[in-house]
Description:
Strand order of the largest sheet: 2-1-5-6-9
Radius of gyration: 15 Å
Amino acid sequence: MTSPAPSPLGSEPAALIARRVSIIVGTRDAALRPHVMRAAGCRLSDDRRRLLLLMPALRGAEVLADLRANRQVAVVFSEPTTHRTLQVKGHDAVVGDATEEELGLAAPYHVRLADELAQLGFGASVTASLLGRDEPLAAIRFTIAEAFEQTPGPAAGERLAPTRG
Length: 165
């Protein structure tokens, strides 16, 4: 019996994902044109191998269409006050409906991001405008295949080493 592949995320990058971060989802279409959209929440699995993202269904329509067509995704998590940044990639993204429990991730995420942006002098209305609270949300689920350090500095672009536990 083989054990599951190790996670590309250690405990520190996993902790970053749970903090007050901006989440940007990037895709590309068949002509290699990029599309990006801000996610409205996320959850990392306990084994740090799978990620659930909440995506605005209307404003994120191009991103969702790309994912349905090619399943390739790149996600950037960035903490605005520190510029600490992480990128993860997946090759098996699936778009679907979010459960009621999953939809419950959006409100706490909005609060965390508003708190983070407040540290930079931005009011809650900025976060509300960025995230669009009254829009239906779709769920994106994928396995994290690769992770990269993207914090500005000498380690930017380095692949994170896989880790078990």
